Amino acid sequence: MEPEKRNFFYLAFAYLCAGLGIIGAFLPLLPTTPFLLLAAWAATRGSPELHRWLYHHPRFGPPLIAWEEKRAVSVEAKWTACALMLTSWIIMVLLTDGWLVPAITGTLFLCGGTFLVTRPTP
After folding, report:
1. Phi, psi of 64 (to 5 degrees)
2. pLDDT tens, residue by residue, 107-120
3. Which end of the chain has less neighbouring CB within 10 Å, N or C?
């Protein structure tokens, strides 16, 4: 892929993820941090200005810096993510007829929650 096209892809992906992360800061069911991590990753390849803005932003910068330096996640983010996964899983169990999808999803949520909870706290 040509460098200009590759940079445009990274730039567009970075802005899309940053936008979703910003929306997630206001909507409780949309996660913020994963989208900001993806935006920061893509911005390093497509937009140094966006990367700088994300890391210097008063709300978005500290979690990104904590993740980059220590792979740390705040206690609030851990509780919120685990509570939302549990709530989603309970709703899925109540609304689906079979057991396979809830079992697979529950296993994935359990793995994701375990990974999240075992991360250090900043």
Report:
1. -65, -45
2. 999 999 999 999 99
3. N
